[in-house]
Amino acid sequence: MNDASVNIKFGENLPTLEAYDNEEWKLMEKHHVEFFPNIYYDVILISTETPNFLDFLTLSLSNTKENEIDQEKISLDLEWENELCLFQFGFSKSHSVVIIRHPPGPGNEELFHFMKSHHFYAKGTHNDIKQLRKKFKIDISSFFSIEDIAKTRLVPYGHSENFMEMVRKFAGEPTAEFKDIKITKSNWEQSKLTKRQILYAAFDVVSLCECYPNFPPPFTNNSQNGQIGNIIGNRITDKINIQKKNKKNRIVNINFENRQKTRRNRRNNELIKTKQSVKFKRTPAKAIYGFIVRNYRGTNNLYDLKYKYFPNNNFLIDFCSIFEDILFVGTFEENNDILNVLHNLGDVTKIVKNNLLPIDATDGDVLFIRNISNKLIEKFNEFLYCFGTNHDFSINQHNDLTYIRIEPREATLSYRIRLFIDEFEYNNQKIIVTDFPYFLPKIRIQNLPQYFGKLEIESLFSDIGKIQNIEILRRQFDYQEQTAFVTFNAVEEAENAIKFKNHVLLSNISSLNHNKETFIKKYEDIDNKMTGKIELNIFRFTDEPHLRFMRRFELRDTDSSISCSKDVLTKYQKYGEIFQYFYDQRFHVGRIQFYDKKDAYTAAKAENSEMTEESRTIVIRDLAFTTTDEEILKLCSRFGIIQNIINRDINALMRFVIKEVTFSTNQAANLAKCSLGAMTINGIAIRVAVLNGGYMDVTDWKMRQRKHWIKLTNTKPNDNLFEDLKKYGKIVKFIYDKRQNVQIPNKNENKEDEDENENEKKIPKMNDQNEKIKNSFHARNENQSENVKNKDDTTFSHTDQNQNDYKDDEECFGDSYIMFKNFLSLQETGVQLYPTIEEFVNILNHDELMIENQIVDGMTLKETYENPDDSSTIRMAIVIDPFPENITENQFIEYLGEFMEYLEFVLDKSLTVNGKQRMVIVPSSRSMTNKIYSRLNEKPVIENEPLLKPVRMRFEDVPNSPKIKPKVVQIIKQESKKMSILIDPLPEGLTEIDIETMCAGYGNYSLTITKSAIVKDKTRAILHPLNCRAKKHVFRALSTQFNGEQMKPFRMFPCDIPPPL
Questions:
Q1: Cα angle vertex 1029, ends 132, 261, to 5°?
Q2: In Å, how far are 153, 412, 611 from 159, measured between CA atoms?
Q3: CA-CA distance, 428 to 317, in Å (whole number)?
Q4: How many CA atoms lie within 13 A of 1022 on its CB side?
């Protein structure tokens, strides 16, 4: 064993984790790594093929006393690709980690006996045990002793199962962010593992070693730990009973708790499936007046803050929130009564920002914040919650500069941040908000010649300034031009690099020497169509997600007078500062992007340029590295005219490439998505999605916020309640869902009578678990004083009407929803009563989210409205006002053609022109709305007549909306996870073990091999998914090739499966 080890540390002025992305960790290589502050572990990588490899494990146990060796528990983690390939063992007493590579094939016998003779602990062992069972071909539960700490020490005590939350709570903050989803999905079977991969793998077992001594004792049903054991046991029993009760009382309708369940209905002998998903809405921002109240002296009761202090004007309040001793208030009007109240609450500052308009904020904005004090950075999450919860942010470091990148997912939140934070001072530091990272001295260079390396790039910019760092991105093919990031010392140097080097022509001949004078020419001197010349495209650096957002406002100029990049610059530089511009030789168009989206709108209108709609672009994922642009263009050209193709950046860990294809119409994009969705290219099943702006699937971080909420049924907000809740953590948001004219159920009523009246009266009942929550919060009598005094003895009171609303009587009660800053705060309450998905969307985030119900009918998507009055359903409408008098109803029906089956329409009185009519069209789905809207904008009803001017909006927003119902499709409850997956016949040589290997890690399922029902003397496989993960992924995993033969799985209900021949 090589004892010579090198220290790996992380911190200021030390290499970051990214520096180890491309460095190989060789076999027998050992390093002394600081995973936690001043806590080092020796990490070594070996293989089962290493001679006497068990000696390394024995040596790690050598620091343990002889009589304790058998009792010492070892932390365990596993990594696998197609099969188990990496074993990680952590030894807490010797502070060492041994990582063992295992080649494909049967499990090593020596390793099996080592694991059989020792005790282990791991987190979340379900899939690990499954992989061990496949590797050693034996039921390892009878041989291995592995404690699942999630089941024994986390869940029973109400602790989070999230790995990093567990680490921070029981071990502390690590020295670096070792956990990265890119590493998780990297190739663990590749011949050379990187140091980043080994550090990731070692961190898992090191964290377990550091957490394990701080865990509570293992929980068992026979626990003798006194009262705690009884409490936890009762919680688990209550949770099981509630689940059984919910299952028993489940009615036949869409269950929003599972967002992607599918159902079927036999209608005209046709199979119909449905799918539900939560999506972001796209809503415009509204103009508000902003006020900052310092030295705030009012209540911390968030309900009182809005409804008690402003009893007559609460409808004018957009939002109000508290941060330390500061109150932020946004109002729709500058009302004197509101101002008087604010002046009594503290020192009021009105925000005046005449240059900020609501149109400046859009869904999906990316904002950059700097000049922040360290004290505020520590509380930034709490601070940002003052303006809304629909955001994601990251804290970044560049040299000595700390900046924060925010992605507000709604225009309203973006507008609030721009309005308030830009005018906010904290610790005498005024915060700066920009929509581009102008402060980074970094550029992005595209179209670098193939032979260029770091030396050539340094030579290219030697007359500009000193270069700090050069990063050359990975290419799909070696013959492609390159992309690089170059970091200078100062922003001025980055600007000069663009000014003097952008759009220069370089010779793509590698025999030229590195003296820049020999191959650099200005485009004024050389025709840029000359053979062997490459035109550089240089622009300021920003991250790729921000680039994708900026492409939403890219202009496309098809003017035939434009033939080079210089023509593009000459035509558009007068409209504002340009971010990037170039002439696209492939599609023969000029492309322009401005820093300010308002400049883009102005230029598009003046020059009649096209700004591509996001919904015309499809994203193709999981493409093999061998897939060329020409293949994708040829494949997609049959769906419509292609306007652009873009390759996303490739990092060192990516195993597939991602391409974006933009079409000329929305229909072409939707058709391509439906047709390509189930296709296999180069043996890999691809994934295809349509970009649709704000109407995009909700992100994981947003759905995780549901676990920050707690619901208290039939609970009125009062000061006592807030005082009791504050001890569990910072409260960032409160919502009271009030219901009126509903009688509170009598607790002494007969249970049978309650069951009979439950569906008729829809009475919300307080369950046992909710009682426990209220008891744990020490809920007191809700009758309290109607007057609230602040520190200046200023009194605020209700009107009589509001006092009655606030009073806890039989005619008014509701549910209180409380959001904590941290998930762990909610865990401290000991009870997990989260809002349902439907409540989370329709009550807590009704302005930002929506639930979309879709029917997957063959190759098309159609939304369904099972109940048009259901608030969870979004009905869309298209209004044409006024409707031309020269178009008859029959002409319009003929014009719509095949769409008539999926819509209803009505002609009624125009609201804009007296004596004329308007047309209101209500399609059956949003996708159908988009198709009809596109046709109305692209094709006139009568030839040589002008196009109609349709307006698309939500049906409830239509002024004087007519009485009209959309097409209704009835759904019979039948889950598609009950559909089996068949492969009939099986390819020659395909065994049961091969199928299990293909589906490893894709959920639980049952597998049966029987004789074929199609080909005599052949076999077939029948897989029955047992959970949603298997339902979604197993089918895709089987859509591959085996020994050169394409497998063709298909779905079928068990009752329809034919008997074998």
A1: 160
A2: 8, 35, 49
A3: 29
A4: 18
Of 195-209, 300-314, 660-674, which one has max mean pLDDT? 195-209
Q: Locate tokens 């470091």: which residue?
A: 397
Give one DSSP letter per residue of 140-191, joined into a string.
GGGT-EEEEHIIIIIGGGT----HHHHHHHHT---SS----HHHHTS-TTSS
| pLDDT for residue 727 is more than 60 | yes
Whether the Cβ atoms of residue 81 and residue 187 lie closer than 8 Å to each other:
yes
Phi, psi of 176 (to 5 degrees): -155, 165
Superfamily of domain 289-434: RRM (RNA recognition motif) domain (3.30.70.330)
What are the helix (H) ranges across 23-89?
A: 54-60
Integer Cα distance of 124 and 445 in angstroms: 44
Furthest C-alpha separation in the chain: 99
**Residue 450 pLDDT class (50, 70, 90 cuts):** confident
What is the CATH topology of the domain spanning 876-957?
A: Alpha-Beta Plaits (3.30.70)
pLDDT value for 267:
37
- CA proximity to 565, closest of 593, 604, 591: 591
What confidence tier does 232 reach under pLDDT thresholds 50, 70, 90?
A: very low
Cα separation of 919 and 253, whole Å? 33
Confidence check: pLDDT of 77 > 90: yes
By the 8 A CB rule, do 460 and 501 touch? Answer: yes
Is the domain spanning 703-739+812-855 CATH 3.30.70? The answer is: yes
Q: Which residues contact 585 (CB under 8 A, 6 or more apart)?
A: none
pLDDT in tens, 2-34: 445 678 998 877 888 888 888 899 999 999 999
Q: Are 131 and 80 in contact (CB under 8 A)?
A: yes
Q: CA–CA separation, 855 vs 270, rounded Å?
A: 12
Q: Where are the domains of the chain?
A: 7-214, 289-434, 703-739+812-855, 876-957, 980-1056
pLDDT at 534: 83
Q: Quick: pLDDT tens for 391-428.
A: 888 888 888 888 999 988 888 889 999 999 888 888 88
Question: How many beta carbons lie within 10 A of that of residue 532, not counting itself?
Answer: 10
Q: Does the structure show a pLDDT above 90 at 645?
A: yes
Q: Which long-range contacts (CB under 8 A, 24 or more apart) does 400-404 make?
A: 401/370, 401/439, 402/370, 402/372, 402/374, 402/377, 403/368, 403/369, 403/370, 403/372, 403/437, 403/439, 404/368, 404/369, 404/370, 404/372, 404/377, 404/380
Taking alpha carbons only, the member of 131, 156, 160 closest to residue 146 is 131
Q: How far is CA 1052 from CA 693, 721, 977, 979, 1041, in A?
A: 35, 53, 10, 5, 21
pLDDT given at position 205:
95
CB 398 within 8 A of CB 361: no
* Cβ–Cβ under 8 Å, residues 286 and 412: yes
Long-range CB pairs of 106-115 (<8 Å, 24+ gap) are 106/135, 106/136, 106/137, 107/132, 107/135, 107/136, 107/137, 108/48, 110/48, 110/53, 110/54, 111/48, 111/54, 111/87, 112/136, 112/143, 114/54, 114/57, 115/143, 115/144
> Are the beta carbons of 698 and 665 closer than 8 angstroms?
no
Domains 7-214 and 703-739+812-855 share a fold: no
Contact between 345 and 398 under an 8 Å Cβ cutoff? The reply is no
The domain defined by 980-1056 carries CATH number 3.30.300.20: no
Could you tell me which CATH number the domain at 7-214 has?
3.30.420.10
pLDDT, position 71: 61
Cis before 985 (ω within 30) = yes
Q: For residue range 874-926, what is the model confidence (pLDDT) as tens digits?
A: 678 888 888 888 888 888 888 888 788 788 888 888 887 888 888 888 888 87
Spatial distance between the Cα atoms of 770 and 831, rounded to a whole number of angstroms: 9
pLDDT of residue 354: 79
Q: What is the pLDDT of residue 814?
A: 75
